[in-house]
Queue: 4 jobs
Job 1
Amino acid sequence: MKKQAHSAKPRIKSHLRLPSETIIDRARNEACRLDFTSFIQVIFHLASPGRQLLMNWHIQKLAYHLEQVRLGRSKRLIINLPPRFLKSIISSIAFPTFVLGHDPTKRIIVVSYGLELAIKLANGSRTIMSSDLYKGIFPRTRLARNTECEIVTTQGGSRLATSIDGPLTGFGGDIIIIDDPIKLSDAASDSKRDHVNEFFKTLILERLDDNVNGAIIIVTQRSGPDDLSGTLLKPPNSWDVLTLPLIAERDEQTLIGEDQYHLRRAGDLLHPAWFPQSAVDERRAVLDEATFAAHYQQCPIQPAGMMIKRDGIKRYDHLPIRTKSHFIIQSWDTAIKTDAHNDYSACVTLLVDDRGNYYVVEVLRDRLLYPQQKAHAISQAQKHRPDTILIEEAALGRTLVKDLKAAGLPAVGIIPEGDKLTRMSIQSEKFAKAQVFFPTSETWLANFEAELLAFPHGRYDDQVDALIQGLAYKRPAEWNDAARRGLENFVTGLWLSQMRGF
C-alpha cells in the first residue's frame, strides 16, 4: 500500500506541472512577439553567452527607437552610444532576428568595418534563429539557407553580413544597418574616414530596395567631427538621432516607450550598475579630454579645440521675459559665395539682460546669395526686434548695412580688431564667468555647439564669428528711445503689409 501511494505521487505532480509550464511558455512567447525589450531580455543569453544582462532604461530607449524603424515610422536613424553599452547586440544581432520573426520576407543588410566583425555579429543572429526558444516565439520563421555571411528564410527574407570593402553589387535590402563603420585605430586617418563617408554616399543609398520605405540605421560611437555621423548630421539632414552620453550634461525627460519617460538629471551616469563612477574615473585618467568627449560623451572636438569647454556653457529652459532694460543683438557673418566649399552666412540673436548675461535666442546658418541674405536679415529683424544689427564691414557686408539702414533698421557696420583667435580669447572670459546661456534643446543647437567646441580647428567658423562679434559689442550707455520706436514702427508696418497682401 505504501509503495502504491508513493508511486502515485510523482504522476500527480507531473500531471499538474505540464499545463502550468505550457501556460508560462505561451505567455512568455506572446510577450516577446509584442515587445522588443522583452525579446531582448529572453534571448540575451543566446546573443551574448556568459554575460549577465543588467536591465537599464537606455535598453528600453534603444529598443523603442529601433521599433519605430520596424514599424515604418523612422526611415533614417543614427545611434550614438559609448562602447560596451549593448548597442551592437541589440541593433545588429537581436533586431534583425526580431524583424524577420515578424516578417520572414524582409531583406536586411548589416555592414561593419571588417568582415571578421560582420561574421561575429551574424553568428549571434544565427544562434538566436536556430534555437528552439526563437522557434517557439516566431513559429512562422524558418531557415532555408544558412551560410557564414547570409541567413535566408523559407519565405525569401534574409540577413546579409558584409564589410565596408565587401561585395554589395547585386544585393539589396529593406533595412540596412551600418554598425561600427570604422575601426577606432583608423578614425584619425583622413583618407580612411573619407573612404567610409564616400562608401555611404556612393553605395549604401542605392542598395535600398524601396527608396520611399527603405530604412538605414547607423550604429556607432563618435570618433571625430567629420566621422560618418557628423557628416550625415550636417544641415540639411533628415535623420532621427539617438545620442546618449556617458555622463548627462543637462536635465532631460527622455522617451523610452509609448507614453513612457525617464528623467535623467545632469551628472547622472548612463548605467551606473554596469559602468560606475570608478570606471569613469579610470577612463578619464588614461584618455585625453578630446578622446573621452568623442567616445564617451558623443561630442567630438578637435584635440586643440578646447578654448570653450562644454561645461562652461550654461543652459536655460525659458528665456527671460523681455523688458526695457534688456538689449537684443543680432550679429551677422556674411559669406560671398554659396558653393559647397565656401563658408556659410550666419546670424546669432542674443538677449542681454541687465546683469550682463547673454542668452543665445536663435542661430540661423545657410549658404545664401545676397538677395536671400537681405530677405533673411529683414525677416530675423521682424521676428526678434533687435536693438542693433551687427554686420562685419567686408565685401557684401557693407551693402547689407546700407540696405538695412535704408529700410529703417538699426544696422551697424563692424570692423573687427585683431585675429579671430585673439577675439575669442577675450570673449571666452564670459563663458568662464558663466555669463553665456544656450537653450536646452533647439534644432540648430547641435551644429552650433559642435562648431564652437571645435574652434579654432573646425572646418567652419561662421557661427563662431557671428557669436564673437555679438559678445564683443558694447551696449550703448543709453539706448535711443526714438530709434527703438522707429524699429517697432518698421516691424509693425511689415506685419500690416503682409496681412493686407502687399
Job 2
Amino acid sequence: MHAGLQLTAVALAGLGLAAPTALAGTWWIDNRFPLMAVLALVAGLRPNLELAPAGRLAVAACLALAVTVRTGWITPVWYERQADVRALQRAVEAVPAGAAVLPVDNIDDGVAPSAYPRGRYFHNGQPTHWSLPVLVIMWRHAFIPNLIWAAGKQPLCVLPPWDEISFPEDGLWPAQSLVDASQTPKHFRTWRDRYDYVLLMNADVGRGADLSGLANLRLERDEGFARLYRVVKG
C-alpha cells in the first residue's frame, strides 16, 4: 500500500464525519469527503496476491462481474429517466430565443418516496431533475436562473441585468414559493415582470401544483413531467 494515500483516506474519512452538509452555498460536503476517502483508499492499494494464474483470473473475473452487474442495474434507471428529458424538450418547444424561463419544482409532502418513478430522486432524497432546466439554454437559447455561477467556485458569469434574477447555486425552488408571497425569494419577487414563462417540473406525481390559478399565468403545454405556463403581461 501507499502510506501517504492511506493516511489521506483516513483524514478524508475524519473530515466526512466532522463536515457540515452545506457551507458557503456548497452542498453535499458531508457526502463528498467519504467518497474521496474511498477513492484514495483504493488508489493506494496494490495487493500482491500469491495466486496461481487461474486464481488471478478468477479474482479479475469477479471484479469485472461486480462492475458489470452495477452498470447493468443503473443503466435501465438512466434510460427510464430519459422520458423526463423528452417531456421537458416537448414542453419548451414553443419558447423563443431570448425568453426568460423560471423553473420551479412540484413538491407534494403527502406522497411517499416509493410513489415517484425510479431514479427521480437520489438515495438521500435529493432530486435528480434539478439541473434538467439548464438544457433549455442549449435547446432554445433562453435564460434560466438556476445556473451554477457562484463567484470563486465556477467559471461562469451572469451579466447585468440578468444577475438580478439569477440564482448562483443550482437547484429548484418549490412551486409554492410563487403561490405564497412569504416564501418567494428576493430575486424572484418580480417574476411576473421579469420572466416570460414558468416551467413546472416533476408535475406528474401527487396532486400536482396547478399554477393556472395564479394571476397572469396561462398553461401553454402539459407534457406530464413538465408543464409550461406563459406569463401574460399587463
Job 3
Amino acid sequence: MRAIREALDGRDWPTFPVNDTGIGMGPQDTQKIFDEFSTIDKSNSNKFGSTGLGLAISRRLCQMLMGDISVTSVLAAGSTFTVHLPADV
C-alpha cells in the first residue's frame, strides 16, 4: 500500500489504495458492497466468514473524518478499495 496526496476542490486529500486479489465483483455488486450485512454471494459468506459489516463500518469511519471510501473491481480479478481523507479536518 502506498499513500498518495491529491489536490481536489482546493484541498489536499491523502488517498490510501488497498488491493484485494480475491474474487472481485461485477458492477452491480460494487453499488451495494458498503451496505450493512451485504455480501456478494451468500455461499461465500460461509466460506470466507463474512458478516457484511467490515466495509460498512469502514465507510462510516471515513465519513466521520469528512472523507469516504470507494471501490473499483473486476470480476475474478480482484478489487481496489481507496480511502480518501482530507488532510485538514
Job 4
Amino acid sequence: MSFFDSHENVADYIRLADGYDGRVLIENLKKHVAPGSRILELGMGPGKDLDILNETFKTTGSDSSKVFLDLYREQHPDADLLQIDAVKMTTTRSFDCIYSNKVLHHLTRDELKQSFARQSDILSDNGILFHSFWFGDKEEEHVGLRFVYYTKGTLVETIGDSFEILKLEQYGEMDDDDSFYVVLKKN
C-alpha cells in the first residue's frame, strides 16, 4: 500500500500543506504555455494547484492516490481526473504541458528517468514540462515517504536528450533557495 492510499495519511498531508500552493510557479508557467492549452498535473494531491491551473488552462488532474482523486471529485464532480502512476503514466491522451509541484522527488533517480521518457511520449510536439523539486544532494525517508533532492547538475543528468532546458531557477518555499523549478521543451 502506498503512503497516500491511507485516508489518515492524506488527511495529515492536507493539514501539513495548508497555506501552500503553486500560484507563484503557475505565474512562471504562464510565460511558457498559452492560455487554453491542455495541461496534465501530475500528483494533484488535494487539488489546490489544479484549481489555479483551471483558471487559465484546460487541465486534467492526476494522482496515483484514489483517496485524493475521490476527495477532489466530491467537491468537483465534473473534474477531468486520471489515476496515473508518475513513472508508467499509462494514458493514451496527449497534453501540451505536464506540470508538477514537488511530486517527482518521491521517485528514485532511475524512476525519474523513466518518467521523463514516458512524459515525452504523451507530450505534444514542442510541448512543455514544468516541474519543481527540493534543492540539495541527498535522499531521505520521512514517515514512509522517499524524498530525493536534486542540484541543477544532477537533474540535468536525469532529464536525458528528449528535452531542451528553457529555464532552471531556484526559489525559496520554506527557506531561501530550498527549491527550484525547471521548464523543459520537447525536442
